[in-house]
Amino acid sequence: SDLQKQEERGELLQPLIFVLLVLCSVLLYFRVSLMDPGFVKPEEEVKEGGEKGQGVVIPQIPGDIKLRRCGYCLVKQPMRARHCQLCQHCVRRYDHHCPWLENCVGERNHPLFIVYLSVQLVVLLWGGHVAW
């Protein structure tokens, strides 16, 4: 039948790859948009977490380096941290607030964000090639 002929010619591979790319794109979207981008925790939470043994590991900072305080949420900001006006949190290694993800891109989700953008680029280029 026609389906067997299409399978022999390899024409069924393209729809399968398309479905896998779309599925991968959707999963990456939810993963990046729902994960913690590296919010800076208030001092009280870090101390409580450290006592329980589940806290965030904070590198020891020499005494001559002063940490700045955020003017909005008043937490001590490590270097390269910035306060996001939309999320109302300080984010470590803040890159930007992505309006499509409705989440900040920071220390923890930056690599997955790059993978997500790469998958989107592949889908866009492939769609452009097919439509051309």
Describe the structure.
- It is a single chain.
- The protein has 132 residues and is an alpha+beta fold.
- The protein is built from four helices and six strands.
- The protein has a two-stranded antiparallel sheet with strand order 1-2. It has a two-stranded antiparallel ribbon with strand order 3-4.
- The longest helix is centred in the N-terminal third of the chain and has 22 residues, at 13-34.
- It is rod-shaped and about 75 Å long.
- The model has no long low-confidence stretch (mean pLDDT 83).
- One of its GO terms (molecular function) is protein-cysteine S-palmitoyltransferase activity.
- Its EC number is 2.3.1.225.
- Belongs to the DHHC palmitoyltransferase family.
- This is Palmitoyltransferase.
- Residues 68-126 form the Palmitoyltransferase DHHC domain.
Topology:
Layout: H1 2-9, H2 13-34, H3 43-52, E1 68-69, E2 76-77, E3 82-84, E4 89-91, E5 96-98, E6 103-105, H4 110-131
Antiparallel strand pairs: 1-2, 3-4, 5-6
Helix pairs in contact: 2-4
Task: Tell me the helix content.
Answer: 40-55%
Structural class: alpha+beta
- Low-confidence blocks of residues: none
Strand arrangement in the largest pleated sheet: 1-2
Number of strands: 6
The total count of helices amounts to 4
The protein's oligomeric status is: single chain
Distance between the termini: 29 Å
The run of helices and strands is: HHHEEEEEEH
Rg, Cα atoms, Å: 22 Å
Mean pLDDT: 83
Largest beta-sheet details: 2 strands, antiparallel
**Approximately how much beta-strand content do the residues carry?**
5-15%
Shape: rod-shaped
